[in-house]
TrEMBL record:
<keyword id="KW-0479">Metal-binding</keyword>
<dbReference type="Pfam" id="PF19112">
    <property type="entry name" value="VanA_C"/>
</dbReference>
<dbReference type="InterPro" id="IPR050584">
    <property type="entry name" value="Cholesterol_7-desaturase"/>
</dbReference>
<keyword id="KW-0001">2Fe-2S</keyword>
<keyword id="KW-0223">Dioxygenase</keyword>
<keyword id="KW-0411">Iron-sulfur</keyword>
<protein>
    <submittedName>
        <fullName>Aromatic ring-hydroxylating dioxygenase subunit alpha</fullName>
    </submittedName>
</protein>
<keyword id="KW-0408">Iron</keyword>
<dbReference type="GO" id="GO:0051213">
    <property type="term" value="F:dioxygenase activity"/>
</dbReference>
<dbReference type="GO" id="GO:0046872">
    <property type="term" value="F:metal ion binding"/>
</dbReference>
<dbReference type="InterPro" id="IPR017941">
    <property type="entry name" value="Rieske_2Fe-2S"/>
</dbReference>
<dbReference type="InterPro" id="IPR036922">
    <property type="entry name" value="Rieske_2Fe-2S_sf"/>
</dbReference>
<dbReference type="GO" id="GO:0051537">
    <property type="term" value="F:2 iron, 2 sulfur cluster binding"/>
</dbReference>
<dbReference type="Pfam" id="PF00355">
    <property type="entry name" value="Rieske"/>
</dbReference>
<dbReference type="InterPro" id="IPR044043">
    <property type="entry name" value="VanA_C_cat"/>
</dbReference>
<keyword id="KW-0560">Oxidoreductase</keyword>
<feature type="domain" description="Rieske">
    <location>
        <begin position="11"/>
        <end position="114"/>
    </location>
</feature>
Length: 346
């Protein structure tokens, strides 16, 4: 499975909208492909291969002109949003310069997405809905860490809630209770609740879940249901309270980097339902950010150690016993495409 690339025939976020300023070009990547994002002063952002057709200098180092074309910083070759070379300034005639590849590009919910696969399919594949961006009943924060691991490790880490022992310093003694699963074409979902076995509940956790206490060995009721779903290639985590109301919504996409796709750029948004007194969430927001950051840093260390072991052992030696993770691996392997950059293990 670690030799399976992401299927490029989906929409992948490659940058936050705020990073691509009007009249500027911005360097991004998908797997082994350099991408130049160009935002003209007027009109939507567009995406080109980040290599000038002349000397392969990055177009992201260039200048955006008044017509919205990007000019290479070296000789001034100009390319439009379709990737056509419209100007070779020192020859002053049409049809001289070669084009560069243009990628279908969309902007939604503060993210810039490209479609790196077959451009003819782009209009038939929906751009994903992202958490609760734009919903005034929720407050949303973003995160975009880079991890030194294959994207499949990230899907496994979030789907398998049985690793709460890892987070004992942040969350105290809690255990996950598996409630069931659903699966279908291109998706797998697992549902959990959590029981506190000891230790004090962190403020940020209480803000999301409500107050939970150690019931001294008695069975704890299911107060919230945590649903983790991989809808290829995206992943979500949603928390519903005992009344079925959504109280937290996490959306993540794991963008592969490099030809072997063993580095991942995560793009995520976390939306939390505002309480009756919304200012309380504002006051607790920095603590919530610190709490989620610490949890993620523990996850980061683990998945990067898994990737290092994969390299050192020359392949995947995992002994997986949890049926949900086995099904997740089958989904990821069937949904992706073989990687030609990773040599087979002897």
């Amino acid at each position: 499975m670690r030799r399976v690339d992401c299927d490029p025939n989906f929409w992948y976020p490659v940058a936050w909208s705020r990073k691509v300023r009007p009249g500027k070009a911005f360097a991004a990547r998908y797997a082994g492909h350099p991408i130049a994002l160009i935002r003209p002063e007027h009109g939507p952002v567009y995406a080109l291969e980040d290599r000038c057709a002349h000397r392969q200098v990055p177009l992201s180092k260039g200048v955006v002109d008044e017509e919205g074309c990007v000019k290479c910083c070296y000789h001034g070759w100009a390319f439009d949003r379709q990737g056509k070379c419209v100007t070779v300034p020192y020859l002053n005639r049409e049809g001289v310069g070669r084009p560069v590849r243009a990628y279908p590009c969309r902007e939604k919910d503060g993210l810039i997405f490209i479609f790196p696969g077959d451009a003819a399919l782009a209009d038939h594949v929906p751009v994903p809905d992202v958490a609760q961006v734009g919903n005034p009943e929720f407050k949303t924060r973003t995160f975009s860490p880079r991890l030194k691991c294959h994207y499949t490790f990230m899907h496994e880490n979030l789907m398998d809630m049985n690793h709460q022992f890892l987070h004992r310093r942040q969350m105290g003694s809690i255990t996950a209770r598996f409630l069931g699963q659903d699966e279908g074409e291109g998706f797998l979902e697992a549902r959990y609740s959590f029981a506190r076995k000891g230790g004090n509940q962190p403020l940020a956790e209480a803000l999301i879940f409500g107050r939970h206490h150690d019931l001294q060995g008695r069975e704890q009721p299911v107060e919230e249901v945590v649903s983790i779903r991989t809808t290829y290639p995206y992943q979500t985590l949603k928390i519903h309270d005992k009344d079925g109301d959504l109280i937290m919504d996490l959306w993540a996409c794991y963008l592969p980097l490099g030809e072997a796709q063993q580095v991942t750029q995560a793009f995520g948004l976390l939306s939390v339902k505002k309480p009756k007194w919304a200012f309380l969430l504002d006051l607790a927001w920095p603590a919530l950010g610190l709490f989620t950051h610490r949890i993620f840093e523990e996850d980061r260390e683990i998945v990067e150690m898994e990737q290092n072991a994969w390299r050192e052992l020359g392949g995947d030696h995992n002994v997986e016993v949890f049926p949900v993770v086995r099904k997740l691996r089958a989904l990821l392997a069937a949904s992706g495409v073989p990687n030609k950059a990773v040599l087979p293990v002897a």
